[in-house]
Specification:
This protein is of the alpha/beta class and about 400 residues long. The protein has one domain: Rossmann fold (3-Layer(aba) Sandwich). Helix content is about 35%, strand content about 25%. It contains 15 helices and 16 strands. The strands form three sheets. Strands 2, 3, 4, 5, 10, 14, 15 and 16 form an eight-stranded mixed beta sheet that branches. Strand 6 and strand 7 form a beta hairpin. Helix 3 packs across helix 4. The longest helix is centred in the N-terminal third of the chain and has 19 residues. It is globular and about 60 Å long.
């Protein structure tokens, strides 16, 4: 099927030459009119193409709220060099890739019920590229809408609080590379007749080789991989936006030694449509019908950590979502409502899905960084930073 975005991309390539996979994915996902994410207010859930932790109900947001409340206390108690300033009365809570605001709504509902002082001090910032999703945020937030201080496509600045994102980095556009006998080659997108095709060429930037060297990657001849410079750049931007506080990221990926090893020698770039990871057809599935399907790749946890530390953040912990959520009070989250009620059944199913080994629990990783807060003991890290 020929989509409007296919015509846009094809014309661009014919006029200016082949484009990187990173540029292609950026257009396919975030084109201002036809991009997969920008053209819809919500893509996940039962009627969408994939599930996230947010789609399982409010319990995920409730557990995050518990951690954010503790982080707020950490901001108030962290020592600064003298003279110590008065504690900031405001707590900035900034969600990146916020969509229509469902996760922030769940977080705020729990803060209002269990941590009212934190709730009253919260200034909410939602970062979302889709204008349609941003337009739905006030309605989604409901009674919490008065806390919405900013909403836009970019990170605000001088934040004192928490920046968090659930499954953002895997949706940022990666470069695709392949190792050949004569060295590293980059994959580009070109036009052949009426279809898009992948072609190899010289790397578009020396940053690709430098990145792989920095994370200790050693690609075997014939191995394919993704290098997500955009993820490293976004982490650096977040570090600059954060004046003082925490950066909490939840995403799926691996440390570099595994991501760039034999287990992923074919690369991880793939698509999802109607909850199915699509197989290759006449060429890579991610080249088909741009704008109609999700495109994603696994996150390099090592690269994210190095980017964060280079930007002045302190790594506080990297661990499986299972251990993070268990530490935040799985038992308490399971206790109410009444054990035999339909709602209790739904909550138990949601918790099982969030924590299940081999599913979201071990596939998703939690990365926690701090800036100007020292190394506070955080409840979500209290079971240790176990990473599978």
């Amino acid at each position: 099927m020929r989509t409007p975005l296919l015509g846009v991309i094809s014309r661009r390539i014919r006029q200016h030459g082949p484009i990187t996979v990173a540029e292609y994915v950026r257009l396919a996902l975030y084109h201002e009119e036809y991009g997969y994410y920008t053209a819809s207010a919500q893509r996940s859930g039962r009627s969408g193409d994939f599930f996230t932790s947010v789609d399982l109900g409010p319990v995920f947001g409730e557990l995050l709220a518990t951690q954010f409340a503790e982080m707020r206390q950490g901001l108030l108690s962290a020592e600064d060099p003298p003279p110590r300033p008065e504690p900031d009365p405001w707590f900035d809570l900034c969600e990146a890739a916020a969509g229509n605001g469902r996760l922030s709504r769940d977080v705020l509902t729990h803060l209002a019920a269990r941590y009212p002082a934190v709730y009253r001090s919260t200034r909410l910032h939602l970062v979302e590229p889709s204008a349609g999703a941003r337009a739905a945020q006030v309605s989604t937030l409901g009674p919490h809408a008065p806390l919405l201080t900013s909403s836009g496509p970019g990170l605000p600045v001088a934040l004192k609080g928490v920046i968090f994102a659930n499954e953002l980095l895997d949706a940022l556009p990666p470069h695709a590379v392949v190792m050949r006998d004569d060295g590293l080659r980059e994959v580009f997108v070109d036009v052949e007749g009426s279809r898009l095709v992948a072609r190899e060429g010289q790397p578009s930037t020396p940053r690709l080789t430098a990145y792989l060297e920095s994370v200790g990657a050693r690609l075997e001849t014939g191995a394919r991989a993704e290098v997500n410079l955009a993820a490293a750049d976004w982490v650096a931007d977040a570090a600059r936006a954060l004046q003082r506080g925490f950066l909490l990221l939840i995403d799926y990926g691996h440390e570099a030694r595994r991501l760039y090893g034999p287990a992923h020698a074919a690369g991880t770039l793939t698509t999802y449509r109607r909850h199915v990871s699509e197989a290759f057809g006449d060429g890579p599935a991610w080249l088909l019908e741009p704008g109609t399907r999700d495109i994603t790749s696994h996150v390099d946890l090592t690269g994210v950590r190095l980017a964060a530390e280079a930007a002045g953040l302190t790594t506080l912990g990297i661990l499986d979502q299972t251990y993070f959520l268990l530490a935040l009070g799985l038992g308490e989250a399971s206790e109410s409502p009444a054990a035999d009620s339909p709602e209790a059944g739904r909550r138990r199913l949601a918790l099982k899905t969030l924590l299940m080994p081999g599913g979201l629990g071990s596939t998703l990783k939690v990365l926690v960084f701090g800036k100007a807060v020292g190394r506070p003991p955080l409840k979500g890290l209290s079971l240790g930073t176990r990473l599978t």
